[in-house]
Structure formats: C-alpha cells, structure tokens
User: Which sequence fits this backbone?
C-alpha cells in the first residue's frame, strides 16, 4: 500500500470567478440555502458545461463555462474574458515570431532549429465563427473561420485545426494549421513511409493526441481501426504536391486551387479558401468583452469594450510580426481577417484606413471570385502504426479515449492508449541516436480492467484507476502497488452515522477502502463533529454532497470515475458524486536515498532497475508516521540488501546510535515496514533512558567533562566492534535477481560516496554511506575498501574480524570476485586529484555519466591546471572513464582545449556547468584551493568577451552587470518629472556631478528658458511722456522677443534626450512667453501699441515644439512611444501655435527615430490636412528616422510632396515651396551615403531649376537650390570614385554651376525642355547667385577627405582685386569651407593655417583704416570688399576647423578661435566696423562663437559661456543684432551643455554633413526668414550627436562614484598617442582616436577595454546611457576594530604595494575575545590569530580574497586532526605536503605558509603522542594503536573517539598500507620499533612513523 502525501478538496478557481461574474444570473448562495432548507435535489438552471485544464506552469488554470473564460495562477485571477456567443473551445497555445522564416522552408532542418523568433504565449478562444487570440502581452487578434471546426490542437508550431465535415460534402482537406495569428490558415500534408504525400479529405482520420515537446501527433483511422504516430515538422518544397511519390514529382511543386463549397449550416457559401474580410457592420464573429475580476458582483460589462486589457494594444519594434498598431487592432477586432492584415501589419509593419480596405475588397468582389490556393506549412511524417487486426470476426475496438506519453524511472518512454474496452495499451519507444527524427518502437503490452489512467511526470510512473475502484501505480508495464486514499469528510460521516445502527442494512464501504484495509472498523458517534462539518459545507457542492446530513444512509457508493489534470506529482480524482479531490503522491525519496537509488539503478539492467525503484517506493511510502532521514536510509539499506539476497532480519543496519531503537520500523528498527502501529504513551520506558545514554551528544559531552576533570571516560563499547553472541548471521540467497549485481551496487554506492566528498554541505550524509559500504566491503572481503572507509570515518565504519558474521559463503565470494567492474584498489577522488597535481601517471577514474558531474568537473579543472600546455587539446580519457552500463551506450569523454591561459580555460569549463559561487564555496579545501586560486587569477585579467555567468563565478560582478545591461538593452530611466522650462536635463545627477563647484548650470538654464516673462528694465525720463514710454517699453520688448524666439533651438540641445514619456500623459511643451514685466510693480507689458508681424512666432513655435520633442529618450525598443501615443499628443485646440508646435514635435520624434512607429493611416491623416508646418515636420522626421535606408515607403511619401519625384502625367498638387524644400532634403537623408543614381539626377536637376510659369519656383529660389546641393552632397558624401555616376560628369557640372556660364546639357534621363517664366527673365547664362552655394557645398561633400588638389584649387579665393570684385563675399566663405572638407587631413588648429586662406595681395589691407596717403596704385582700393572677403574667409576657415575638431575640446583649436573672437569683438567697437559693415562683423563673430562651441561641445566651458552671455545681452544698445544672431548664440550655449552634459559630437561623414546643414553660417534676419536656408534644418545636428558619457556606478549600491579613468590615444604617423587621466563621470574623447580605456583607480578592480577585443562593448555601454559598473577592492570595513601596526610597518607595507585603505578595511583579530582555560591554550589561540592575520594579508596582497574562508580552515588543520568525525583533514595535509614538494605548482600557496602549517600539524601530533606515553595508564591509545596496526594489520579498538579519529588520520596521512597479520614481519605482540622496518618502509614518511611509535 502506498499512502498519498496530501489530499484536498478541489474546486476550480474559475468556478468561483464565474459564480460572482456579472454575466452569471444564478445566485449560488441562494441555491445552497434552498437546498439546505428543503433537503431536495434539483439541477442548476444554467446547464452550460464547464471545462478547464491545469497547465504545466505552476498552478496555472484555464477555465471556461458558457461565455466566460478565466485564466488564473496560484488562485489569483490573471485575466477574465467574456464573449457574446457561447464558447466552444479554449486552448493555451504558444506561437513564435518568425518574420524571416518563409511558410515553406527551402530544405529540411534539424528539429532543434525549426523555431525562430520570440515565443508568444496566448489564449485561443473558439466559437462558431472565429478564433480570438489573446496574448499575455495584451495584443489581440481575430482569426475568422470560414468552416466549422471540431477541435483545436496545440503543437510546437502553433494551432492545428480539424475541419467539420458534412455528410454530402466533396472531398476537401480537413486538417489545417495556423502558425501565427496574423497568418493565413495553411494546409497540412501527411507523408507516408514510402514518401507518398497524402492529404486527408474526410472525417475518417481524427487527431486524438498532440505533444508540443516531442512534436508528435497521434491519429485514429476509423476505416482501419488503427492509431498512427506522426512527427510534425515544417514543410519543404518536396511536400507541396500531395498524392504523388517524391521520386516522380518535379523539382518544384505547385498548389492546386480548392473550389468553394457550402459546408456551413448557416447557409453562407464557405469553402476552404483564404480567409476573407467581412464588413464591419455585418461581422458575424463575436467579440470578447474584458471583465473585471470577482471583486464586484454589481459591475456590468460595457458593450463597446473589445479588448481584455486596460490599454489599447501597442505595436512592438518594426519588422516584428507582432507589429500591430492600434489601428490595425481596430480592424482586426472589427472582423478583418489575417489574410489581409498579415500583408499590412506583419509584412509592412503599418496599417491603412478603413475606407481603403472597403474599396479594396469591393474591387476584389467585382473581379475574379476564384479562391486562391492555400499554402502548405506543416508536414506529418509517418512513424508508426498499430498492427492490423488479424481476427476478422473480432469487432473494432474503436478510438482511444485518452492518449498520453509517460516515462519509467530508467528513462524509457511509452505511448499509452486508453481503449474503449477498458484496456490500457502501452507501446515502448525511443529516439534513435538521440535524434528526434527517428524513433524505434517495441512490442505492445496491454493492461486490462482500466477505467482511467494519468501520468505522473515527477515520479515517472502512471496512476491507473481500475474497474474495482482501486488506484494503482505502474512503472511502465510493471505494477508497483496500490494506493490508499485518506477518508474524505463525506465518507467518514456516512460511515459514522451508519455505525449508529439506525438502519438494519449495513453501510458498505467503498471498494477502495475495502481493498486498502479489509479489517478496518470505523468509529461511531459523529455527534461532536457533525456541527462543524455542517458549518464547513461548501454551498457550491451539488446535492449528492449533502446526503450525509440525513440519518438514513444512502445505498449509492461514492467511487472514483476519472483521473485528470496530472501535473508533477498531483492528479485530480473525480467521483461519481461529482466531488473532485486533488491528491499528491509522495516523492520518491529524500536527497541521499534519491542519489543512492539513481546511482544503483544506473549500473543495473533496465528491467531490474525499474523493479528496484518500484520496490523501494512501495516500502518507503507504506502507511504510517513520517520518517526521519536516518530511518529512511535504514529502510533503503534493507530494501537493497533484500533484493541482493540478504536476510535483513539478522542484520543490525542502524546507521547511528540514535537509530538503535527497537520495535517500530518507522523509527529505524529491524521490523521496518511491517507490523501494527505501536500505541503512543506519555509514561516513557527504560529504552528512552538508554537512548539518551547512548546518544552522540551524551557521549561527546561526557568525554569533554572527563577530560576537563582529568578522569577516565567510561565509554560503552561500540556495536561496530562486536557481534552478538546469540545472533545468527544467516545466509544470503543467491537466487535473488540482484545477487549477481552486488559488485555493481557496491561500486555505484562507492562512486556516490566519492561524489559527495566533493561537497562539504553533504558531509553529514557520508556516515550513512560508510556504514553500508563498510559492511558490504567486509562481506565481500575487500580489505582495501575497508581501510579506505575506516580512514575517513572510523566511528561509523563497520569492522568485523570474524568471517563467520558474513552471510556470503566463500564460493559466492569467489563467484562475485570474478566481476571485472570493481577495481581492486578503491578509487579515491582526493588521491586521484593529488596525483594529477603532482604530474604522476594515473589510472582513469570511473564515473557514472552525468551522475558523477562533480568528479568529472573537478578532475577536468585540475588536469587543465596541471597540464602546463597552451593551445593544445587535452585528452580527458586518460583521467576519467565512464563505467560500462548494461543496456546503455556509453558516451565518449570529450577532449578539452586549453587556450592561452589555463585559468581562463578552467573558468570557462566551470561556467558551462551548473555550478555557482555557492557550490564553489562548498568544495573541500584541497580541491578548492587550486580552483579558487585560478578563478582569482581570472579576476585580474578577465576575457572581455565572457558572458554574465562566468563573470559572476570569478567574482567580477561589475563586469557581469555591464554584460547584463547590454544583453537586456537596459536603458537608463530618465527623469519623468518635467520641469516647466523643459530643462530638467541640466538638473540631473550627472550634470550636478560634472559641474559641482559653480553656477554654470543655473546660468545656462536662465539663458535658455522661455516660459517666464522678460524683465523690462527701463527708466522713464522726465521729458518722455507716458504714451511714448509705453511704446518705448514695447519696442524694447520686441527686441527681447526676438531673443526669446531664437532660444528654443539652444534649449533643445541642452535638454536632448533627458526625459522619458509617460504613456498616459501628453508631453508638456513649455510656453513661448512673448510678454514682459516692468518694474517696480511688475506691470505686464504686451505688444499692443506698435506694429509687428502677426505671424512672427510661427517658426519660433515650430522650434519650441522640436525642442520639447527632443527631450524624449531615443530608445527605439521602448513601448511607451508608439503610434497611439503620438496621435494622443495631437492638440485638441484649433490654435495655429499649438498645431505648429505639434509639427515641430513630430519632427523631433523623427530625429530620435520614433517616427518610424507612426502607422500609415496616421501619416495619411497628417498629410491630408495640408498644413505646411505639419508636412515639413513629418517629411524631415520620417526621412531622419530612415537615414540611409533607401526605404521605398518613405520615398513614396516624399514624392507626394515633391514635384521632382512625380511622373510628368501626375496631377498637380498645391504644394508649398517650404514643403518641397523639406522633402528635397528628405530625399538626401533617406539615400544618404548610397550614391543612388536616380536621386543624384533628381538633385542635379533641381539644383539648376529655373522659375516656371505662374510664379512657379519664383520665391526663395536660393533655399531650394541650396537644399538640392546639400541633398546631392549627402547622397554622394565622400564618393569620389563612384563609377556608376561617372557618365554624369558631376565635377564639371557642379563647377559650371558654381562659377557660372551657359546652361549645361544634362546627361540624365530626367532632362526636360525648360519652360520660360513670364515674370522672371534670366537669359541663357546660369544665375550663380542661385546655384553657386549649393554647387560649392555639393563638391565639398563629394570630395570630402579625398585630398584632391585639383578640386581644391577651384575653391581658392581670387588672388587679384579684379577677380575678387566678381565674387560675392559670402561665396568665399562657402568655398573655404568646401576646400577644408576636401583637404580634411591638412586642417591644422593654428592662426597661420587660417590666415593661409586669405589671398596674399589683400592680407595687409584687411581690417585696417585706409591711409590718408595711399601708395601709388592703391588709391582706388575697395576696402569694404577686402574686409568683407576677409571676414567670410575667416568664417569659413573657422567653421571647417570646428568640424574637424568637433567635440574634441582641442586646446589649440580653442585658442585659435578665441583669438579671432576677441579680435572681432574688439573691432565691433571701433569705427573700422563701419567700413566693413557691422552686419558682416556681427555675422563673423556669431560664426566664430558657434564654431568654438562646436569644438567644446559638452564641456560647459566657462569662457565660451561668458562670451555668449555678453553677446546675448546686446538688446537695448545694439540695432544690428538680429534674430539670426541670437539663434547662433543660443545654439552655442546649447552645444556647450549638449544633452545635459551626456552627449558629444561625432566626426563621421553623416555627422559632419548634419552639422554643416544645421549650423549653416548664414543666419536668418527675422523669425520668418527662409530665403537662403530653411529654419527647420537647424535641428539636424541631432544626426551628428553621439553618447560619450561614461558614468561609473558602484556594484553594491548603484550610486555614481568618482573613479580614475586612463585614456590612451592611438598612435598616428605624426605623433605617438598621449595618455590622459580623467575622473568619471566624464565625456570620453572620440573613440575613433583612442586605443584603450582602463579603470585605473586603485580602489576598484582594474578593467581594460581595447580597440581589438572590447570596443563594441564599450560603444554599446555608451549607447545605453554610459553606466559602467565598478567593484570595490578590499574587504568591507568593520566598525569597532582597531589596527595595531605602527607607522613604520605601514610604510614598509605601502612600499611593497599595499595601500593604507586596504589595511584599514581588514578584519582585525587582536580585538576579538579569546577564550582559553590555560596559558598554553592562550598561546595557541594567539598563535592561530597571528597566522590568520598573516594569511589574510597575503590574500589581500595577492588579490585573492575568495581564498580567505579556505585559509581560515587551512590554519585550523593541525588542531582538528583529532576532532570527532573530522573526516578528511589528512587529505588536506597530504595536499600541503605535495605542494611543498612541487615548486612548479607552488602558485596556490606560499612555501613558507605550507611549511608552517605542516610543522604545526607535526607538533600537534608529537604533543598528543607524548601525552599518551606520559600517562602510562595501560589503556589503548594512539601510540599503542599504531603499533597494533603495524604489527597485526588490524584496526585497534580505542575507547576515546578523539583517539580513533587521530589514529585514522595518521594512517591516512602517512599512507600506511594494510598489512595482514599472516604476512607481518614480526610476531604478534612485538613492540620493538626497529623490528617494524618492513612495515615502516612502505610509508612515504617512515621517519615520522618511527618518531611516533618509539
């Protein structure tokens, strides 16, 4: 009998939820009360059947009843769905996202690689017309059904559907597959063994079972009455044409269309065809309604809610098959089929409007109605079929009622079929060669009389419900035993009432209880329990649960009728009364017994192993009280010995003294498992007192007290050393099945013993194993094994000198000794590892596959460390070998490749195992020291490519957190507390740490804020009237407003990517305040009395929106920003300013990459409005989001706003000029760095576009031509040698556009005849005022960094005054800029280089006052032209110098630009500025300041900030300071504080182009000026920004910590790279100019990142926010402890490499209290403390802090030699002796330390032996025991457990071999040490032995 562990009443959680659901009309409480009152039976009004399932996940339940589905876990409702129609089926299914995987695979692939993408866990709900798929992530899909479905099956790849087949239906396919909710239904083909493809087209073939893990489907054929097994896989091209053998098919198969037929009973013509779209108003598919949990019964569902989540479905990253925006979700929820949505959402990642959908399908309905063929996605490969029934007269058995897969304890798998004739058909199978594609089947065995069965995966058994009502466990086909079910409440009360004899007819107990205990008598009176049972009655039970309330017993028996929902060890039993009970079967065993059982079974034949497992389980879980681990071990010993033939009733198998209790087998006695239960009493017995006297605690305490009082300790003679006189040993039964496998059992347990020796946490289990192993070794006469166990545990070892005690006769021993499986010498893992470390030749250590994982791992690690080779493979078969296992093929031992560093190899080996730091800490000392030392070595120099697991193992938690941050793409959470001025980035933690000592952050914030009114600080003069004073204040306010309107661009730079959005809130846009406050009363001042442009805030509002949008982080994987949230931020008011700000917001989203998530419908809605600002922001934003991608969809959107991309026959659209300018640049961004020929032709054509009729291209032509040149340059950036563009002759063409001349003939496919304008006449020559800027920059872009001197010579300034008059001064600035781009590597940060661009003939006349008496020939010099040319040349040179050194903080470049800034500021105050033009001086000054800010980007430099503050203050006194001047100055401030100090500027080609476009040195004169340059382009600097902030954070706290960082520049041909020391947080220099970065702070672990191995990791860290985790060195500081070293000693230590901080963080032992009873012990304790201090200092010095716990154990070895059950101290000392003798392996410990510990141990042994010799008590002691051992070869009997342990430790330490008494050199009783020389010489330390026994 097997008792259950737990039995509880079971009610599905979903039933409680449905009972209180608003959709449920029946009140269960009312029904229960009515039942109790009337005592009648009636059925519920709601007749809807319920069905539920328990998933493999812990306590997950899927419940359905009527129209309600409940998904719960652990009794908590996760989701609840309510449908409008009755639900027919619910399945928990997992899909996979595989966007790159085609429907048909090109070739057959391995089963382990057939799944691609991320898993999608869903709940699939089917009704009559649709399948609704609800993802756990919140997404919702609808799959419309065009045919009836009988059943859904989940598979490895998705859902498998069985179509409902009509009676008179044509043969069409019936099996379909759904691989993804957005895919079409696909066909399934069946491939027979002869490679013939078939497709079932009738209902004769039905699926009865599917398994996801093994990808198996089992079908039943009604025509043949046979079950078949199929393997499910993805289809290949050979599987596309069914019905034809594979050998005769053509190479490429085609799908045949399937005609439409009527199969739906509703009358609609529905066929097997792709799912069509049903109009929304006529959708027949029901929609599920999200409902709350059961907390409120008063709530009612809302009819218009169509999703189970509180928030609409959000799309995920582009390219994913889950990319279903909310608009697509609306279409799907309205009935749109996946056949169309898959093409829209999964393939394009976008959605379209409803009108387009209806138009599309209306067109399709009018066209061809022939259904398209369905593709084939899955193939069922035939594996096995039942044998044909040869008896014709025997009727068909029918389809199996239940099918499942089970396993037995030895790993064999079975298919189990529960047949209608109550037979359980079991078929054994296995995979051939571990390959899932091939299976081997065994014979079919049947079990009769089975009502139901259920597998128990955790037990690897099957629970069978027999016809008699008994529950029986089966292991495969072997019957294990019956189970006994505890009495439930109803049965007990019924039997108790029946015992009152109120009725003459006796109560018949259930057969289950009769089978369990036939003689059980039930107790009587239930009066005291009846009230409680009635009160505890559940009101939702059916009426049959209430029958026990009646005194009249019921004749109906309560019997189990069904088993269902097996999970782990649990299964649900359903009774005929409707009651359900959830039962739990007990575990197989605890830890030790479970390991021992697995080891023994591993070395047995499969059938014997299964029998042993079943026998043990039956005996272990017999009814009775719970067992202790020791009692369980004794039962296991009896079980296995009985199976081997022992007569266990004659054996005392007690593992420890506390188990020597007689009587009850549950307490460890000999009658275990049999006999009646003993009565329990409180009186006690004499045995209790004897138990206390013999307990280990009493023995140990008595020994300690006797030692303190110097008395002789009387010890009870151990039972291990005597044999009872009256006990007969008995004789073993050699006919038992396991008798011949007794050596195998012994070896298995011995290997388990050696395995547990490598885990100190399992040492408490070793004595139990020693007790059994020593007994078996004694019986088998294995003397070496006896000595092996005695040396480890002398107190627990069974020793018997008399051979009469053994139950095995000599002939049996000789028979068993012929077994070759048992090595003659006991394998010892410690000795094996020691020999490997010493380099000795060893025999391979036997292991049992994966069971000896610790031995295999440690041997591998020690072998690698001792090999001493590099870049070689180490053959592990010379160190370990697998033991041959009967019936199991042994797997070969793979070789280990040793790389450059053996320690790294060890770390990689450990990381691939399941070991963690805790497991490493449980290694024994002798094994842990070399391994931990190797791992500590890895700490100093870890491999930068290691993963998180290996880094945690070696103790580098800092690098592990960095790897985790990269792997999980963890973005730093920005601030969500939005500041009113939008500058929360300047108040972040990093900004405060970077600039903690001054107020530069506050000053920058004051300069860039625009939300507060300006202060009008004017004083009214006495002659000024009030009216004039009001106008004066308003004029002053107007000039301040010009400054305020120009600052949003700079604010956007400072606040770049500094905050994260809230999905439920709109982004706050700081107001652009254009009012003022006049003192002293703060009177409000507005522009009410003066004239000003009404739309002057149009573009400032646009910039304000961009600045606000740029605050959002650029994490493209974030789900907070999606199409729904973007549309959610649309302004609700109709104000122009709000719409303009939203347009800028859209552009900002695009610059950060978020606009790629905007759906097509939303984009169409934006563009359909026709707003210029919206179109500009959308076009530039979408182009920036798809930078350089050549995205076709974005190109089409740009074409709608750009006439150049439209075909000639296209309808003319009312497009604004600025929109076309923005779209033209968008083309350049989308095709950046691609050299796309067509787009190059378009840009070239638009560069010289002439004005057309009706004022077409007549206004602001300069900006259009410049944009065309910029777009052309971006497309061809640095592509001088692009051969595909050679025939266009671009250099000559652009040179012609730059210098002028006749119109060239374009060699492009877009050349058209020029249409003359009616208003503008330009003639036949090129208007260079229009084309020159764009052509100049296009040439500079095209030849960037090429060093082409010829092209650069075109950009030289004219060297004569005559030619200089023909060039516009601002063209010289662009030419100088282009020349610098071409000669990029020749840029030098010096004044001389800048002056070299000025023609020599005008150098002496620049910025000087004209002389009163000019020299001859100089009378007519145009000083204004010369000065303007000089200013522009300097501006261009300064700008290209800034681009070269952008974000580098180069000191030379900074000083060069500072020289010219001071020069021009000084000139602006002199009269010479009038000659040059103050506007020109102002523009040059602004360009220089902006260039200097670009060089110092992200530095927050104070000198630049002071200049900017001075220049922006010129409001009231200056009239030449324009809107453009303020824009340049505020952009300079923004660059200084770029992203709040987190970002720098890149120097890539794209970044340089973006900076030129955004900082184009020609600024607008007023707020609406777009003549030369579109103001929206000023924000494109974002494309040139890169994260460079490196912030070091503590691993323990996560806080920012200052840390020294060593930066090494790369060597160049010109100079050797310098080294730079920085302190984090800081901005790193450009990574392209560096060679390495290292954490050089001595307080933290050193980490080096070089360009060769970890540069990509560093880039990813910077992209993710720059958080770099560092770990502190040294021990944590302990308060209250004082260091006692002097200053001189500290100075010496610091000279040797120690830091004072490391010493101050040590554990100081001198202040610890030391308890000692004598002066001698006090000296010993102080000596121990001194050793510990020195070793800890050594660990700190060697940076091996992980060794400190082992060091503490190491120095305790000498004093622990004699401790009771010390275990393996001798092995530790042997290891130390070996280290002393091996200088090459002396890297683990210092030689001095090893010698000190060994000498301490020897001294302790000598003192102990001397003490015993001085006592002369005449009793046996260590000295006499050693003599007896050497003389007689026997283990002496010592009364003191300390002496026994010390003696065994000495024998093990000195490696004294076992010498039988017959071969002794001297006679018995001889005590002369000289005569023991023959025994002493067998030990490697004979001198030490002689010193002990002399």
Assistant:
């Amino acid at each position: 009998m097997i008792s259950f562990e737990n039995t509880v009443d079971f009610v599905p959680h979903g039933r409680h939820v449905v009972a209180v659901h608003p959709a449920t009309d029946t009140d269960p409480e009312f029904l229960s009360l009515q039942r109790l009152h009337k005592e009648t039976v009636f059925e519920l009004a709601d007749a809807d059947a319920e069905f539920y399932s328990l998933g493999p996940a812990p306590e997950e339940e899927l419940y359905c009843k009527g129209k309600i589905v409940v998904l719960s876990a652990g009794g908590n409702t996760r989701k609840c769905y309510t449908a409008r129609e009755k639900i027919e089926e619910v399945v928990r299914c997992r899909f996979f996202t595989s966007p790159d995987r085609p429907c048909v695979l090109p070739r057959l692939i391995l089963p382990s690689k057939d799944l691609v993408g991320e898993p999608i866990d869903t709940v699939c709900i089917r009704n009559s017309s649709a399948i609704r798929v609800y993802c756990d992530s919140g997404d919702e899909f609808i799959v419309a059904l065009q045919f009836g479905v009988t059943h859904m099956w989940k598979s490895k790849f998705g859902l498998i559907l069985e179509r409902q087949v009509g009676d008179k239906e044509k043969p069409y396919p019936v099996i379909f597959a759904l691989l993804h909710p957005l895919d079409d239904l696909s066909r399934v083909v069946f491939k027979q063994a002869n490679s013939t493809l078939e497709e079932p087209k009738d209902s004769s073939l039905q699926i009865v079972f599917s398994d996801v893990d093994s990808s198996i489907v089992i079908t039943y054929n009604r025509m043949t009455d046979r079950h078949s097994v199929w393997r499910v896989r993805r289809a290949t091209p050979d599987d596309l044409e069914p019905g034809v053998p594979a050998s005769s098919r053509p190479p490429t198969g085609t799908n045949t269309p399937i005609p439409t037929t009527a199969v739906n009973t509703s009358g609609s013509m529905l066929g097997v065809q792709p799912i069509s779209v049903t109009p929304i108003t006529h959708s027949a598919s029901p929609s599920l309604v999200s409902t709350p949990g059961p907390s409120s019964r008063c709530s009612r569902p809302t009819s218009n809610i169509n999703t189970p989540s509180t928030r609409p479905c959000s799309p995920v990253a582009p390219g994913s098959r889950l990319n279903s925006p909310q608009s697509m979700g609306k279409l799907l929820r309205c009935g749109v089929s996946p056949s169309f949505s898959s093409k829209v959402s999964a393939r394009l990642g976008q959605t379209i409007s409803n009108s387009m959908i209806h138009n599309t399908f209306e067109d399709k309905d009018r066209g061809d109605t022939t259904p398209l063929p369905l593709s084939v996605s899955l193939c069922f490969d035939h594996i096995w079929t039942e044998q044909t029934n040869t008896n014709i007269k025997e009727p068909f058995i029918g389809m199996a009622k239940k099918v499942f897969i089970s396993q037995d304890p030895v790993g064999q798998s079975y298919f189990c079929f529960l047949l209608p004739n109550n037979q359980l058909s079991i078929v054994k199978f296995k995979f051939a060669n571990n390959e899932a594609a091939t299976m081997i089947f065994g014979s079919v065995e049947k079990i009769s009389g089975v009502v139901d069965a259920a597998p128990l995966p955790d037990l690897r058994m099957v629970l069978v419900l027999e016809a008699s009502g008994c529950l029986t466990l089966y292991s495969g086909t072997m019957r294990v035993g019956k189970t006994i079910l505890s009495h439930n409440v109803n049965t007990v009360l019924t039997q108790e009432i029946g015992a009152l004899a109120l009725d003459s007819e006796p109560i018949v107990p259930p057969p289950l209880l009769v089978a369990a205990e036939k003689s059980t008598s039930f107790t009587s009176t239930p009066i005291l329990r009846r009230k409680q049972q009635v009160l505890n009655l559940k009101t939702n039970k059916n009426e049959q649960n209430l029958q026990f309330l009646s005194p009249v017993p019921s004749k109906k028996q309560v019997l189990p009728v069904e088993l269902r929902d097996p999970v782990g060890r649990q299964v649900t039993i359903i009774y005929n009364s409707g009651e359900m009970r959830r039962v739990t079967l007990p575990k197989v065993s605890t830890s030790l017994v479970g390991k021992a059982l697995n080891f023994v079974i591993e070395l047995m034949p499969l059938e014997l192993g299964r029998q042993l497992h079943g026998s043990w389980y039956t005996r272990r879980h017999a009814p009775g009280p719970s067992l202790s681990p020791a009692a369980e071990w004794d039962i296991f010993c009896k079980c296995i010995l009985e199976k081997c033939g022992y007569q266990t009733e004659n054996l005392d198998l007690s593992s420890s003294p506390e188990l020597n209790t007689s009587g009850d087998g549950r307490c460890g006695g000999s009658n275990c498992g049999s006999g009646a239960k003993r009565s329990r009493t409180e009186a006690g017995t004499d045995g209790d007192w004897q138990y206390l006297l013999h307990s280990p605690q009493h023995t140990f305490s008595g020994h300690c007290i006797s030692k303190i009082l110097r008395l002789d300790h009387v010890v009870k003679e151990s039972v291990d050393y005597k044999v009872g006189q009256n006990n007969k040993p008995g004789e073993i039964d050699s006919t038992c099945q396991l008798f011949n496998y007794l050596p195998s059992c012994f070896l298995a347990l011995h290997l388990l013993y050696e395995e547990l020796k490598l885990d100190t946490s399992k040492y408490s289990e070793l004595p139990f194993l020693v007790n059994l192993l020593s007994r078996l070794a004694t019986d088998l006469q294995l003397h070496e094994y006896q000595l092996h166990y005695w040396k480890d545990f002398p107190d627990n070892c069974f020793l018997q000198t008399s051979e009469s005690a053994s139950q095995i006769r000599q002939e049996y021993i000789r028979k068993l000794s012929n077994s070759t499986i048992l090595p003659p010498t006991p394998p010892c893992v410690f000795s094996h590892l020691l020999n490997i470390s010493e380099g000795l030749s060893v025999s391979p250590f036997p292991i049992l596959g994966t069971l000896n994982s610790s031995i295999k791992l440690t041997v591998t690690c020690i072998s690698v460390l001792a090999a001493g080779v590099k870049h070689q493979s180490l053959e592990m078969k010379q160190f370990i070998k697998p033991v041959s296992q009967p019936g199991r093929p042994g797997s070969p031992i793979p070789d280990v490749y040793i790389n450059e560093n053996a320690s790294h190899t060890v770390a990689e080996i450990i990381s691939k195992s399941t070991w963690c730091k805790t497991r490493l800490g449980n290694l024994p000392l002798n094994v842990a020291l070399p391994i931990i030392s190797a791992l500590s070595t890895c700490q100093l120099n870890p491999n930068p490519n290691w993963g998180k697991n290996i880094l945690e193992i070696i103790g580098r938690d800092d690098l592990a957190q960095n790897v985790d941050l990269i792997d999980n793409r963890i973005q730093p959470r920005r601030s969500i507390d939005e500041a009113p001025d939008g500058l929360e980035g300047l108040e972040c933690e990093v900004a405060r740490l970077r600039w903690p000592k001054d107020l530069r952050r506050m000053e920058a914030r004051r300069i860039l804020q625009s939300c507060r009114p300006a202060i009008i600080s004017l004083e009214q003069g006495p002659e000024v009237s009030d009216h004039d004073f009001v106008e004066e204040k308003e004029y002053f306010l107007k000039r301040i407003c010009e400054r305020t309107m120009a600052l949003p661009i700079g604010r956007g730079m400072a606040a770049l990517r500094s905050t994260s959005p809230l999905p439920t809130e709109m982004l706050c846009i700081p107001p652009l305040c254009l009012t003022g406050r006049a003192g002293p009363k703060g009177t409000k001042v507005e522009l009410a009395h003066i004239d000003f442009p009404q739309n002057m805030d149009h573009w400032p509002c646009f910039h304000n929106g961009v600045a606000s949008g740029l605050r959002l982080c650029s994490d493209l994987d974030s789900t907070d920003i999606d199409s729904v949230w973007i549309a959610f931020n649309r302004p609700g008011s109709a104000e122009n300013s709000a719409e303009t700000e939203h347009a800028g917001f859209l552009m900002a989203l695009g610059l950060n990459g978020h606009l790629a998530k905007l759906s097509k419908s939303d984009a169409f809605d934006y563009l359909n409005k026709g707003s210029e600002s919206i179109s500009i922001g959308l076009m530039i934003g979408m182009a920036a989001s798809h930078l350089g991608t050549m995205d076709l969809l974005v190109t089409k959107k740009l074409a709608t706003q750009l006439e150049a991309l439209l075909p000639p026959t296209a309808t003319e659209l009312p497009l604004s000029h600025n929109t076309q300018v923005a779209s033209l640049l968008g083309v350049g961004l989308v095709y950046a760095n691609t050299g796309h020929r067509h787009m190059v032709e378009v840009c070239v054509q638009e560069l010289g576009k002439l004005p057309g009729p009706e004022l077409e291209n007549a206004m602001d032509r300069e900006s259009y031509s410049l944009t065309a040149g910029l777009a052309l340059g971006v497309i061809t950036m640095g592509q001088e040698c692009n051969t595909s563009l050679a025939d266009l002759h671009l250099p000559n063409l652009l040179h012609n556009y730059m210098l002028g001349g006749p119109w060239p003939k374009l060699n492009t496919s877009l050349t058209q005849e020029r249409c003359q304008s009616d208003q503008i006449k330009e003639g036949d020559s090129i208007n260079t005022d229009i084309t020159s800027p764009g052509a100049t920059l296009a040439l500079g872009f095209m030849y960037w960094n090429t060093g082409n001197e010829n092209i650069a010579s075109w950009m030289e300034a004219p060297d004569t005054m005559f030619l200089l008059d023909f060039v516009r001064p601002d063209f010289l600035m662009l030419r100088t800029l282009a020349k610098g781009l071409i000669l990029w590597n020749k840029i030098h940060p010096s004044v001389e280089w800048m002056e070299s661009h000025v023609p020599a003939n005008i150098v002496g006349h620049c910025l000087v006052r004209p002389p009163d008496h000019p020299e001859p020939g100089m009378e007519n010099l145009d000083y204004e032209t010369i000065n303007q040319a000089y200013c522009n040349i300097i501006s261009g040179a300064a700008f290209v110098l800034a681009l070269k050194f952008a974000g580098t903080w180069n000191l030379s470049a900074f000083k060069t630009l500072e020289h010219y800034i001071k020069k021009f500021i000084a000139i602006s105050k002199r009269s010479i500025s009038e000659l040059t033009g103050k506007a020109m001086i102002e523009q040059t000054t602004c360009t220089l300041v902006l260039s200097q800010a670009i060089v110092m980007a992200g530095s927050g430099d104070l000198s630049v900030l002071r200049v900017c503050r001075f220049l922006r203050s010129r409001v009231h006194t200056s009239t030449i300071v324009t809107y453009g001047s303020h824009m340049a100055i505020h952009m300079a401030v923004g660059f200084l504080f770029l992203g709040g100090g987190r970002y720098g500027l890149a120097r890539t080609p794209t970044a340089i182009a973006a900076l030129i476009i955004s900082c184009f040195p020609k600024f607008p004169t007023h707020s609406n000026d777009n003549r030369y340059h579109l103001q929206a382009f000023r924000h494109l600097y974002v494309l040139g920004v890169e994260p460079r902030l490196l912030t070091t954070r503590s691993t323990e706290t996560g806080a920012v910590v200052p840390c020294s960082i060593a930066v090494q520049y790369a060597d160049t041909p010109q100079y050797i790279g310098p080294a730079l020391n920085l302190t984090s947080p800081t901005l790193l220099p450009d990574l392209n100019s560096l060679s390495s970065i290292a954490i050089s702070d001595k307080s933290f672990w050193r980490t080096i990142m070089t360009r060769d191995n970890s540069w990509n990791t560093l880039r990813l860290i910077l992209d993710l926010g720059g958080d770099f985790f560092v770990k502190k060195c040294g021990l944590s500081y302990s308060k209250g402890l004082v260091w006692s070293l002097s200053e001189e000693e500290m100075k010496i230590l610091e000279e040797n490499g120690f830091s004072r901080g490391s010493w101050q963080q040590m554990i100081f032992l001198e202040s610890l209290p030391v308890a000692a009873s004598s002066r001698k012990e006090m000296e010993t304790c102080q000596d121990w403390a001194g050793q510990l201090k020195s070793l800890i200092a050594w660990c700190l010095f060697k940076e091996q802090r992980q060794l400190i716990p082992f060091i503490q154990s190491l120095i305790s070895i000498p004093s622990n030699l004699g401790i009771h059950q010390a275990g393996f101290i001798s092995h530790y000392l042997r290891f130390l002796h070996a280290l002393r003798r091996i200088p090459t392996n002396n890297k683990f410990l210092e030689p001095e330390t090893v010698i000190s510990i060994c000498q301490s141990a020897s001294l302790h042994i000598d003192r102990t032996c001397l003490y015993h010799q001085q006592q002369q008590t005449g009793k046996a002691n260590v000295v006499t025991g050693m003599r007896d051992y050497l003389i007689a070869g026997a283990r002496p009997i010592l009364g003191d457990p300390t002496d026994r342990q010390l003696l065994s430790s000495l024998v093990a330490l000195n490696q004294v071999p076992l010498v039988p008494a017959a071969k002794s050199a001297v006679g018995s009783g001889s005590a002369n040490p000289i005569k023991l020389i023959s025994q002493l010489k067998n030990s490697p330390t004979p001198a030490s032995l002689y010193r002990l026994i002399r």
